[in-house]
């Protein structure tokens, strides 16, 4: 097979006890262990000279310089498209033959596909976290729209000057391969296609990972000293060569981190802690019961009236939920459970270490609210019932409210004060209404979780993308419903304490939410101020 010939002719080192590849349907190959593999075994050494990047491609690197700033995924897509076009002239011809011949079913491309499966799938991710990945809040264009723009304004003209042309369909296929298979290799290559490394399929409990020397010369890629080192460094003298250390191997190593038995498939992980929303958008699959799933609200998408606390105080206010309280609640989750981030190898974003922390308004995969989301709702409740509540006493009031909530959850409170019970009920109402608003922003919101499940069961097997999309939408609906039910149960406990009549009037005012197609929440200012005024009267 062409891929094996490519490996053998490019000095890729396979361990004798290592692994082998085999066909895995239309999606390419998989890697199976030929023998038992132990922790720290190196199963493959891949020379960096054979990674496909803008530094190694035959495409003139000057061609990638554009007046428009584009991310490195677009650049690598152009590189991959060019190498595919030149066929057997490409150094990577054998490797390219091993890649899927069809577009990888990444959700980011469903919007621009014409087939009914993609179009149906695109409808079902409306209002979900996946939609937010492919059409980020605050951006004027989706990923699919950006691909069309880059193809028409940059890629197609560059290829034409070199005597080549390709279709938008082929270019989108190349993008799907870059999205689902690329790795960030080092400071020289940046994002690249790494033969062999991308043959390992993904799982969260992986047995192999890639190790590489990342800090190399960004100009020439040298691993050791080179002419581009800083001038003020003392030059190395010509000294004796017999004691000189051997040159370092500049390779991407596939290293075992968990035992594998002979005959078992060996899995890699493309990145840690990725939720299904990212996996579906960028890689074209989801993981059942993914513990890193979450549902979130972007701070900028929330109504201005909800932005009460400054970021500078957020860490202080979030500390009202001590580890003891978190251990005893079934409604609020530990913030460390919501640490999922976008893929580091398929994103060109960088974040400064001293940047202020952005509040995480999220539900975890079990429907528990983040501490930040609880603080937001609790501060709103405090301000609504007591507009004179000063920032200087805000933390102590939040500490009291968190403690009261935990006591109510555990049936330990028999005589709470009326204002505190009212505040707790308002917290529950606000969180429930945020969840209901998200549900209303989804496709076919009138369908229950059970009805969505029945629809999924009746879907033809060849509607692969639609099945993925409905599974994702179904999971998020279940999470939102679980959150609503949890806070409804808390209000039931409050009612059992005899406070339901005291808060009926407050409930009848409502919290002024309206659902938007994007899943954002709109707060009606008149209702907010009416709620505040009523709180002062009481």
Explain how this protein is built.
This protein is an alpha+beta fold and 538 residues long. The chain is built from 17 helices and 16 strands. The chain is elongated. β5 (183-184) and β6 (191-192) form a beta hairpin. The protein starts with a helix and ends with a helix. α11 packs across α13 (418-440) and α12 (394-409) packs across α13. It folds into 2 domains: 2-220 and 249-276, set domain protein methyltransferase, domain 1 (Alpha-Beta Complex), CATH 3.90.1410.10; 293-346 and 358-537, no CATH class. Helix content is 39%, strand content 10%. The strands form 7 sheets. A 4-stranded antiparallel sheet has the order 1-4-9-8, with no helix packed on it. The model is unreliable at 23-27, 234-242, 340-353 and 501-538 (pLDDT under 50).
Number of domains: 2
What is the architecture of the largest domain at the second tier of CATH?
A: Alpha-Beta Complex
Mean pLDDT: 82
In spatial order, strands of the major sheet run: 1-4-9-8
The CATH homologous superfamily of the largest domain is called set domain protein methyltransferase, domain 1
List how many beta strands DSSP finds. 16
The description of the largest β-sheet is: 4 strands, antiparallel
Helix-strand makeup class: alpha+beta
CATH C-level of the largest domain: Alpha Beta
What share of residues are in beta strands? 5-15%
CATH topology of the largest domain: set domain protein methyltransferase, domain 1
Low-confidence stretches: 23-27, 234-242, 340-353, 501-538
Tell me, briefly, the overall form. Answer: elongated
Distance between the termini: 79 Å
């Amino acid at each position: 097979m062409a891929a094996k010939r490519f490996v053998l002719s490019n000095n890729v080192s396979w361990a004798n006890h290592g692994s082998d590849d085999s066909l895995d349907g239309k999606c390419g190959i998989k890697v199976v262990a030929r023998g038992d593999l132990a922790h720290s075994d190196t199963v493959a050494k891949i020379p960096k000279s054979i990674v496909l990047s803008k530094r190694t491609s035959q495409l003139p690197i000057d061609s990638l310089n554009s007046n428009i700033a584009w991310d490195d995924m677009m650049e690598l897509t152009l590189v991959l498209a060019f190498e595919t076009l030149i066929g057997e002239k490409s150094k990577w011809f054998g490797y390219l033959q091993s890649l899927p011949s069809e577009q990888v079913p990444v959700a980011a491309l469903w919007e621009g596909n014409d087939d009914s499966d993609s179009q149906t799938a695109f409808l079902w991710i409306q209002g979900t976290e996946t939609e937010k990945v492919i059409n980020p809040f605050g951006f004027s264009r989706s990923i699919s729209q950006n691909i069309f723009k880059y193809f028409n304004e940059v890629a197609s003209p560059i290829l034409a000057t070199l005597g080549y042309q390709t279709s938008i369909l082929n270019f989108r296929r190349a993008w799907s391969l870059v999205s689902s298979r690329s790795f960030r290799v080092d400071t020289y290559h940046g994002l690249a296609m790494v033969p062999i490394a991308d043959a390992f399929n993904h799982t969260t409990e992986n047995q192999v990972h890639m190790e590489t020397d990342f800090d190399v010369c960004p100009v020439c890629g040298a691993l050791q000293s080179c002419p581009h080192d800083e001038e003020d460094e003392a030059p190395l003298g010509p000294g004796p060569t017999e004691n000189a250390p051997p040159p370092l191997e500049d390779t991407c190593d596939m290293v075992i981190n968990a035992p594998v038995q002979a005959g078992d498939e060996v899995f890699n992980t493309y990145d840690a802690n990725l939720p299904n929303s990212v996996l579906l958008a960028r890689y074209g699959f989801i993981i059942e019961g993914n513990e890193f799933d979450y549902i979130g609200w972007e701070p900028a998408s929330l109504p201005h009236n909800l932005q009460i606390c400054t970021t500078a105080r957020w860490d202080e206010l979030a500390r009202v939920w001590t580890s003891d309280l978190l251990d005893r609640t079934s409604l609020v989750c530990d913030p460390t459970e919501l640490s999922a981030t976008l893929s580091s190898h398929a994103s060109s974003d960088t974040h400064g270490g001293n940047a202020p922390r952005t509040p995480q308004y999220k539900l975890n995969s079990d429907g528990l609210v983040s501490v930040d989301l609880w603080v937001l709702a609790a501060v709103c409740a405090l301000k609504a019932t007591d507009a004179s509540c000063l920032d200087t006493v805000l933390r102590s009031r939040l500490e009291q409210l968190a403690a009261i909530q935990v006591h109510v959850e555990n049936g330990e409170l028999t005589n709470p004060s009326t204002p505190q019970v009212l505040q707790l009920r308002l917290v529950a109402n606000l969180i429930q209404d945020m969840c209901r608003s998200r549900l209303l922003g989804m496709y076919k919101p009138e369908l229950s979780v059970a009805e969505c499940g029945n629809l999924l069961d009746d879907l033809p097997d060849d509607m692969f993308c639609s099945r993925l999309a409905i599974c994702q939408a179904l999971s998020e609906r279940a999470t939102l419903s679980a959150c609503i039910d949890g806070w409804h149960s808390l209000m039931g406990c409050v009612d059992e304490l005899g406070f339901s009549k005291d808060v009926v009037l407050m409930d009848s005012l409502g919290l002024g939410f309206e659902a938007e197609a994007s899943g954002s929440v709109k707060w009606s200012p008149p209702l907010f101020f009416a709620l505040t005024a009523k709180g002062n009267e009481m």
